[in-house]
Design a protein that fits this description.
This protein is α/β, with parallel strands linked by helices. It has 18 helices and seven strands. It folds into two domains: 189 residues, Rossmann fold (3-Layer(aba) Sandwich); 185 residues, no CATH class.
Length: 398
């Protein structure tokens, strides 16, 4: 694959074989988080906040905030292409540490007692379940478990984070379960069930994980606004309000003249996306009714699988392309992560031949590594952010 660099400072690259096709694109589809808005100070901080809150505040384990999950840890999960959805990623981090706790309880000969006490717990509503988790925390603290011990295990030779991620694979329907199973002790096959019960996560019903994440991300005022009910955790700060828009008005004007209104393909809830567009006075640039948000992916189920239709599953994405341009005109998707690259690859494997991928680097704490990943997965062009697209087009059309 031959790539040419147009600007080393802005990291603008394009695949030589794709130059003509890029110039002939008729419509653009944009991811939202990391493409339209910066999320390093919102979603990624929310993930860290949720994991800290679960172990330090709810369970009450001793330890220092900000160490259980670093931004680098988040990026490692993102680079697998399997954790584009941040609910899933938050669950993965908590499940990982709970598996370490289960292993530690076995070593301390306390696992059977722990399982006997908590294997039958059931989630019904948040407040009563929080009381159960406080009892779980009491048990763990009485056996000397703290968050510093959990953090130290991230670099363990047999149960470190790198080794867990190495076991993940696109081929597994449940990559986290596959990764954790070999290192968990056997307690009658119930160890994974026990972990899942300790952090209830249900895509279609009320649960603990989504509730904690959404309250932390939105803050109590926006949570009340979007969900129509009082918050439980009372977070004052709203990470959503920190999401600054990336494209300038000049960029949007130039691109709209060429590509008409933009479509969005994103796992962001629609109410949150439209809120940000309205807040920044950018709604007029986007065809929000002809776009795909989280609700479209969860409602359009295949065999009752729900979020299996999120990235990198191309099913709904392919329908969006068909609606926008049919099977002849070229469409470009702008994404910010490895999951987006896999989405494009999977769509092409399903026969979509009129699709290009433009990767942006601005959401990554390690843009050089992400650049390598995009080139590895044959992105048609890579750039710092969407504001570079007009420059790319101008240069290619000289």
């Amino acid at each position: 694959m031959a790539y040419r660099c147009l600007d080393k400072d802005r990291k603008i690259y394009f695949k030589k074989d794709s130059a003509r096709a890029i110039c002939n694109v008729s419509r653009i589809i944009l991811d939202f988080d990391g493409v339209l808005v910066y999320t390093s100070e919102s979603f990624r901080q929310t993930i860290r906040n949720v994991v800290d809150y679960y172990f330090l505040e709810i369970l009450g384990l001793e330890g220092e905030k900000g160490r259980l999950v670093t931004l680098g840890d988040v990026q490692k999960f993102k680079d697998t292409g399997l954790y584009n959805n941040d609910w899933n990623l938050s669950f993965a981090f908590i499940a990982y540490y709970l598996a370490i706790i289960v292993k530690d309880l076995q070593r301390k000969r306390a696992l059977q007692d722990f399982a006997k006490r908590f294997i039958n717990i059931q989630f019904s509503e948040v407040q009563s379940f929080l009381q159960i988790l406080r009892e779980v925390g009491d048990f763990l603290r009485s056996h000397g478990i703290n968050s510093t011990e959990l953090v130290n295990m991230k670099n363990d030779n047999t149960f470190g984070l790198e080794l867990i991620l190495a076991r993940t694979s696109m081929k597994n329907s449940n990559p986290l379960e596959t990764a954790l199973a070999p290192v968990l002790p056997q307690i009658g096959g119930d160890e994974l069930t026990l972990i899942e019960k300790l952090v209830p996560y249900d895509l279609e019903k009320p649960d603990l994980l989504k509730r904690l994440f959404e309250e932390s991300y939105l803050g109590r005022e926006l949570f009340n606004k979007f969900y129509g009910g009082p918050s439980v955790f009372k977070f004052d700060e709203s990470f959503l309000e920190k999401e600054a828009f990336i494209p300038t008005e000049d960029t949007l004007d130039m691109l709209r003249l060429r590509f008409r209104k933009f479509a969005i393909y994103s796992e962001k809830p629609k109410v949150q996306g439209t809120y940000l567009l309205d807040k920044n006075n950018f709604t007029e640039y986007f065809d929000t009714e002809g776009s795909v948000f989280l609700e479209d992916l969860t409602e359009s189920k295949a065999g009752g699988e729900g979020l299996t239709l999120c990235k990198p599953n191309p099913t709904i994405f392919m329908k969006l392309i068909e609606t926008l341009v049919g099977k002849v005109s070229l469409v470009a998707y702008v994404g910010d992560g490895v999951a987006d690259a896999f989405l494009i690859k999977n769509a092409r494997m399903e026969g979509v031949s009129n699709l290009l991928f433009l990767g942006v680097l601005c959401s990554s704490p390690n843009p050089n590594e992400l650049l390598s990943q995009f080139i590895k997965h044959e992105a048609d062009a890579v750039m710092t952010d969407v504001n570079d697209i007009p420059n790319l087009l101008a240069w290619l059309e000289k």
